[in-house]
Design brief:
Number of helices: 9
CATH architecture: 3-Layer(aba) Sandwich
Number of domains: 1
Strand order of the largest sheet: 4-3-2-1-5-6-7
Shape: globular
Strand content: 15-25%
CATH superfamily: HAD superfamily/HAD-like
CATH topology: Rossmann fold
Helix content: 40-55%
Largest sheet: 7 strands, mixed
Radius of gyration: 18 Å
Distance between the termini: 26 Å
Length: 229
């Protein structure tokens, strides 16, 4: 892949199972519920009904995420308290849930002058501290709504940053930053076939810890495949 010197080099990363060994959302909910209102952990069996609703397509991914949030954290919740909990969660994730190879690659790209961007379906309010510790310059994530007192609501603001919606968010970010497609070289890392829209948009797609389906897509398209861990 030939990149010109004038191009802005961007290293764009998915989070769950790309940088992290395990998904982060359920881990965060448990971490936060224990520190916020641990009595809500009694609602854990209710998650089975939510997952069942998702499996039969009575709930979409965004609605499932909102219902899980409401069940285990409540709504509204104090944003400052969640910010403190998100900081402690980031430390837990760094301790045992981040691939060392991913961390090394991120550091190497930062040293080489890449602009590091995290693009994830996870909620921005809890992934921002982790992204900061890893050295990311920007975070594109699912946003939550806030009430008039600045408290976090169990509602998604806009779209769940997933699939085609992730590509729309990435494109909107680039436009807001004054970056045109012709002026940027984007290296994109993800484990999931749901990110094919972003893979197709990127300059250098890298299937990372890929699912079987993504591995097949990557082979068909001649994309690079890497595995960490």
């Amino acid at each position: 892949m030939l990149w010109t010197v004038a191009m802005t080099k961007i290293a764009l990363y998915d989070l769950d199972k790309t940088i992290t060994k395990r998904p982060t959302y359920m881990s965060f909910l448990l971490h936060a519920a224990w520190r916020h209102e641990r009595w809500r952990l009694f609602f854990l069996p209710g998650l089975l009904f939510l997952f069942a609703g998702y499996l039969v397509r009575a709930l979409n991914r965004g609605t499932l995420k909102e219902r899980m949030h409401d069940m285990l954290l409540g709504s509204p919740i104090d944003a400052d308290k969640m910010a403190q909990i998100a900081e402690s969660f980031a430390e837990v994730m760094l301790a045992d849930n981040v691939y060392p190879q991913a961390r090394a690659r991120i550091a190497k790209e930062k040293a080489a002058g890449h602009r590091l961007v995290l693009a994830t379906a996870s909620y921005g309010f809890y992934v921002a501290p982790l992204a900061r510790r890893l050295g990311f310059d920007d975070v594109i994530a699912t946003r939550v709504k806030y009430d008039e007192e600045g408290r976090i609501l169990a509602e998604i603001d806009g779209e769940n940053c997933y699939g085609e919606a992730k590509l729309r968010r990435v494109e909107a970010w680039a436009e807001a930053e004054g970056l045109t497609k012709a002026d940027i070289a984007v290296r994109f890392y993800s484990d999931s076939q749901t990110d094919v829209p972003v893979f197709d948009w990127s300059t250098e797609p890298i299937a990372t810890n890929p699912t079987t389906r993504l591995r097949n897509i990557a082979r068909k398209n001649g994309w690079r495949i890497i595995a960490w861990g």
